[in-house]
Amino acid sequence: MSTIFDDLIEVVKAHPIIYDIRMKGYQKRGSRREKAWQAVAKCMQQRGHDINDDGCRRRWNKLKFAYTRDRTLRRIQGTPPLRSSCAKYFESLAFLNPFLDDYKARPRTVQPIVLDSESDDDSAIHSTVLESESENDNSPNNRSHLLAVKTEEDQSLEVKNDE
């Protein structure tokens, strides 16, 4: 008897748009991936599992994250981790390896940070980081990081002003 995770791995494996980062349309959040998740949910329901497409996606992401973590620990330690949430699925998830390696090998644009050697304070560093990051990425996650850095910078200025 197969578990929900065995079935999920098998069904997702048949839909490469979900995990193949080289596939056209992977980066776009759109109808192709949504349709794939709906098809996965339908297959899972046909196999007797009461789960919708959002539930499939959540379980897959948790399983993939656990596999990636265990895979990294195996590389570092040379042996399987003592406690593993996906040990029995490790071999079944090995088909993800080329795609995980490709993801890490993708080139990223990195802007050099220019330090002002004449300045003693850290404001030159923070302003350069803020400018280079804001030019490259306007995602909500990045903006919140920028706000956190800016907030830390503002707090340090307030401390200096209070003295």
TrEMBL record:
This is MADF domain-containing protein. Residues 7-101 form the MADF domain. It comes from Elaeophora elaphi. One of its GO terms (biological process) is regulation of transcription by RNA polymerase II. It comes from the Eukaryota. One of its GO terms (cellular component) is nucleus. It holds the Pfam family MADF_DNA_bdg. Residues 115-163 are annotated as: Disordered. Residues 150-163 have a biased composition (Basic and acidic residues).
